C-alpha cells in the first residue's frame, strides 16, 4: 500500500515490515491530489491502512477498521491456529475476527464491504461535483476463504 500511495519502492519509502508506517516526510497520492483541488477519501477494512500507519496524510475522509482486541491478544492467535481441528472453532474465529463492538467503529458504518460503500456514498453526497479520489480496501477477498454449502464439500 505504501508503494501505491507514494510511487516509491519499499527500499525508498521504508515500509518494510508489519509494524512500519508511512513517514510524514513523504508526499502521498491523496496529498498531491488534495493540493490539486480534489476531495480525498479512504475507505478501508485493512487495519494497516489507518492513521496509526500514516495513511491519513492528505485525506479528507478516512473510514477505517480499528484493530480488534481479539487480533491484538494472544487469544486470537491461539484460536486461529486451532481452527483446522474443528468447524466450531473455525466459526468462532470468523465471528470474533469480524464482530465489531460499538467502540471499534469509525462512524455509523461498519468496515465490511457494504459499510465501506455506504460510508463512501455518504461522503460523496457532499462533494457537489468536486473531483475526487477514493481508495477502497476490501478484506473479504482475503483468507480465510470459506466456501458456502454445497461448495464446502463438493471439491
Q: Can you describe this structure?
A:
- The protein is of the alpha/beta class.
- The chain is 37% helix and 10% strand.
- It is built from 8 helices and 3 strands, in the order αααββααααβα.
- It has a 3-stranded parallel beta sheet, sandwiched between helices.
- The relative contact order is 0.16.
- The model has no long low-confidence stretch (mean pLDDT 84).
Quick take:
This protein has eight helices and three strands; from the N terminus they run αααββααααβα. The protein has 155 residues and is of the alpha/beta class.
Chain-wise SSE layout:
Elements: H1 2-6, H2 10-13, H3 29-35, E1 39-44, E2 61-63, H4 69-72, H5 74-82, H6 87-98, H7 113-124, E3 132-137, H8 151-154
Parallel strand pairs: 1-2, 1-3
Tell me how many strands there are.
Answer: 3
Q: Helix share of residues?
A: 25-40%
Q: Could you report the average pLDDT, rounded to the nearest whole number? A: 84
N- to C-terminal distance: 34 Å
Neighbour order of strands in the largest sheet: 2-1-3
Please state the overall shape, judged from the principal axes of the Cα atoms.
globular
Specify the structural class: alpha/beta
User: Could you list the spans in which at least 5 consecutive residues all have pLDDT below 50?
Assistant: none
**Percent of residues in beta strands:** 5-15%
Largest sheet: 3 strands, parallel
What is the overall number of helices? 8
Rg from alpha-carbon coordinates: 18 Å
Helix and strand element order: HHHEEHHHHEH
Amino acid at each position: 500500500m505504501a508503494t501505491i500511495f507514494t510511487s516509491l519502492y519499499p527500499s525508498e519509502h521504508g515500509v518494510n515490515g508489519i509494524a512500519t508506517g508511512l513517514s510524514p516526510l513523504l508526499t502521498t497520492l491523496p496529498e498531491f491530489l488534495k493540493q490539486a483541488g480534489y476531495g480525498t477519501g479512504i475507505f478501508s477494512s485493512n487495519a494497516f491502512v489507518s492513521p496509526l500507519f500514516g495513511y491519513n496524510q492528505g485525506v479528507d475522509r478516512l473510514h477505517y477498521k480499528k484493530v480488534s482486541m481479539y487480533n491484538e491478544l494472544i487469544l486470537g492467535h491461539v484460536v486461529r491456529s486451532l481452527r483446522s481441528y474443528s468447524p466450531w472453532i473455525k466459526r468462532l474465529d470468523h465471528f470474533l475476527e469480524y464482530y465489531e463492538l460499538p467502540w471499534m467503529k469509525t462512524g455509523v458504518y461498519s468496515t465490511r464491504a457494504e459499510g465501506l460503500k455506504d460510508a463512501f456514498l455518504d461522503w460523496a453526497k457532499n462533494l457537489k461535483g468536486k473531483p475526487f479520489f477514493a481508495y477502497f480496501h476490501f478484506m473479504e477477498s482475503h483468507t480465510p476463504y470459506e466456501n458456502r454449502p454445497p461448495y464446502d464439500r463438493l471439491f
